[in-house]
Automatic annotation (TrEMBL):
Organism from which the protein derives: Citrus sinensis (Sweet orange)
Keywords for this protein: Hydrolase
Lineage top rank: taxon: Eukaryota
Name of this chain's protein: Nudix hydrolase 15
Length: 253
């Protein structure tokens, strides 16, 4: 039993090292930001230093989405498989409320682990943050950065869901998000371009769960990065594109 435990720990260490070395491709959000910088010209210099001789050009009034981060927390199951901690949102929530970056957050990792502690009582000290992957665009136009973390000691985590945000905490095998099983897809359109909305059905202890939308999209991408292989289906994520007029009621249909 002790030998098996040591083997499991070693396997997680290897996975963590692989993920720390991960360098993802440029996202459509990164490309959008680069285009804004290239077309905006120079800005004023720092106070107290000589200003550039180039003419001052104002930044275009361009919408930039608010930043958010979400923790993809992995641990090793009883059979040696990688599993991911998930939540069933409280039914009273009409939108995704968690994950928004706060002024005091040092980085995306701190945002994600802070939110996990607030929502399900997961102590950040138990989580080894190993990498971040490409940002996703949420339905409510949030730029969401998935943060992959490893929980080395699953037994030390005692879920305490925040009843205002989370109805239930459960877990699922990460590899299921690479398989074309118990899955259906819906084609959507955002600003003239089609994207795919994935729905995964999962059952655990006679309870049925539906994992869909941006959560499903993030888990498909995370599984691809961890297992170093593409899913058995097209991902079809939406691109970072925004209408000229954006207000609090604007969302992806």
């Amino acid at each position: 039993m002790e030998s098996s435990s040591k083997s499991n720990i070693q396997r997680l260490i290897v996975i963590a090292q692989h993920l720390r070395d991960y360098k993802g491709p440029p996202s459509t959000y990164d490309q959008m930001e680069q285009k804004i910088r290239e077309t905006s010209g120079k800005v004023t210099s720092l106070v107290g230093s000589q200003e550039s001789a180039s003419p001052r050009v104002r930044y275009a009034k361009t919408f930039r989405p608010k930043k958010a981060a979400v923790l993809v927390c992995l641990f090793e199951g009883d059979n040696g498989e990688l599993r991911v901690i998930l939540t069933k949102r409280a039914s009273r929530l009409s939108t995704h409320s968690g994950g928004k970056a706060e002024e005091g957050d040092e980085d995306d990792g701190e945002t994600a682990t802070r939110e996990a502690k607030e929502e399900i009582g997961l102590d950040p000290s138990l989580v080894d943050v190993v990498t971040v992957i490409e940002p996703f665009l949420s339905k409510y136009l949030l730029r969401v950065v998935p943060v992959i973390g490893i929980l080395h000691n699953r037994k030390a985590f005692k879920p305490t869901p925040n009843p205002g945000e989370v109805e239930e905490v459960f877990d699922a095998p990460l590899e299921m998000f690479l398989k074309d099983e118990n899955r259906r897809v819906e084609e959507k359109e955002w600003m003239g371009e089609k994207y795919l909305l994935h729905y995964f059905n999962y059952e655990q202890k006679n309870k049925k769960y539906l994992i869909w939308g941006i959560t499903a999209a993030i888990l498909v991408r995370a599984a691809s990065v961890v297992y170093q292989k593409p899913p058995a289906f097209e991902e079809g994520n939406p691109k970072f594109k925004f209408p000229k007029d954006v207000n609090r009621d604007t969302f992806m249909s």
